[in-house]
Amino acid sequence: MSTKIENINIFIQKKMAELKTENISAVEMAEYLDEAQILKDNKSRPGLPLRNYLRSNSILGGYQNQSRRWFIQRLEDDKDFISVAKAARILKVSEHAIYKKIERNEIEPKIIGKNRFLIPKDAVTGIVNDKKRIHQIKERETLFSLTLNIKQQVSKIKEDLMLIINKLHSLESKIEALEENEDQSNNHKTEIEIGNEQVTTLDDILPVKPGLKMLIIAKTPAPISVRAGHYFQGKHGKMLWNKLQEYNIFTPSENKFEDECLLDYDFGITDIVKVPHDFGNEPSSFDYQSGADRIMNLIELHKPKVIFFVYKKVLDNILRIMFNITTKSKYGFNPEIEEYFKCKVFVFPMPGTPCKADDAHQAMLELHIYLSNLT
After folding, report:
1. How many Å apart are CA 225 and CA 20, to the nearest integer?
2. Counts of helices then strands in the chain (DSSP H, E)
3. DSSP codes, 16-35
4. Which of 292, 332, 293 is nearest to 316 (CA)?
């Protein structure tokens, strides 16, 4: 364990003791680490540097909950035990040598997590007093260093193979799910008549009884999403679901598509234009005109607390068509136009849009706070 990682671990445990909390999320702790100038955070992806350390099993007490979110558990204070890193410094050996002694049952550690241990102070004191044993450790360490490189190479190859196998299994599962969903009733495919043609698209997801916390308004279904029978299944569409999960606004159940869980959160979803379009293929002015009337009727019927526009251009077109407003909207909340919709109006700062990372982060935090306070 490097000095930097040990300092991070020390700070985390002291901070949790100061806060008097037993568990803390990686995102929240990352803010404290950044503020203390111990670990600089990623502004566009809060908590990412700390999560990377958690994934490498470098943070004491780190674990993932059922929603795959990272947390850290406060460890009990124990004056009779010290960290592996500190034991290695006292004995002037590598941490690997300490782990080998644990593996050979020469030291009985205190287990505090997966491959995480504390070392009894008596064991370290006994070794320090026994010069012969220290010499043996150093001799063995020479052998360990010769074999470690080979073991690391073998481990890396195994990891790469496992990643490939897991990826293949994941792709196979997705293919099976997509094939099954073709015939399952829980997909949202529907048929609409355009002229003399029947067009397959996605049905709106709205409650039977009016009343929503948030109505998500997209532009038009993507063909890849229509084939899957579920909203936002393309590369760009997944960014929406990922951001909503990242800011704890929406967490779908495992083994379900994201849109299957929307109504559980009192969220709904629709498009201003229901005919599918490929990415970059913009709907016509006529499409926007007819769609704007339908959107306003849905807002009036379901009375959402927030209308969430996935694309800024959709809101700008509605403002122009319905209210003759040519001023452009902004990313995040738009309080100046709430009177027209009789609810909060939010524009999603999708990654890749001309919105600064800090502004996008602040906008998503404000949305999380507002929705969290709704009863």
Report:
1. 46
2. 13, 13
3. HHHHT-SEEEHHHHHHHHHH
4. 292
One-character DSSP codes across 311-323? SHHHHHHHHHHHH
Separation between Cα atoms, residue 268 and residue 157, nearest integer Å = 46
Q: Would the pLDDT of 4 be above 70?
A: yes
Residue given tokens 């590369």 in the structure block: 235
Indicate whether this model's pTM tops 0.90: no
Task: Please give the single-letter amino acid code of residue 24.
Answer: I
Q: How far is CA 354 from CA 35, 42, 147, 359, in A?
A: 27, 18, 52, 10
AA identity, residue 284: S
**pLDDT value at 185 more than 90:** no
Nearest one of 71, 69, 63, 70 to 16, comparing CA atoms: 71
Closest among 33, 58, 25, 52 to 246, alpha carbons compared: 25
Two tokens, residue 289:
């005109």
For residues 290 and 282, give the distance between their C-alpha atoms in angstroms, rounded to a whole number: 15
CB 171 within 8 A of CB 263: no
The mean per-residue pLDDT over the stretch 206-224 comes to: 94
pLDDT digits (tens, 9 = 90+) for 89-146: 878 888 888 888 888 888 888 777 667 778 887 777 777 666 565 566 667 677 777 7
Three-state SS for 206? coil
d(CA 375, CA 372): 8
More confident call, 47 vs 143: 47
| Structure tokens belonging to residue 241 | 């679901």
CA 268 to chain centre: 21
CB-side neighbour CA atoms (13 Å) of 164: 6
C-alpha 4/C-alpha 365 separation (Å) is 30
Output 289-296 pairs: Cβ under 8 A, ≥24 positions apart.
289/321, 292/317, 292/318, 292/321, 292/322, 293/322, 295/217, 295/270, 296/322
- Percentage of residues in the chain having pLDDT higher than 90: 48
* Contact status, residue 363 vs residue 333, Cβ threshold 8 Å: yes
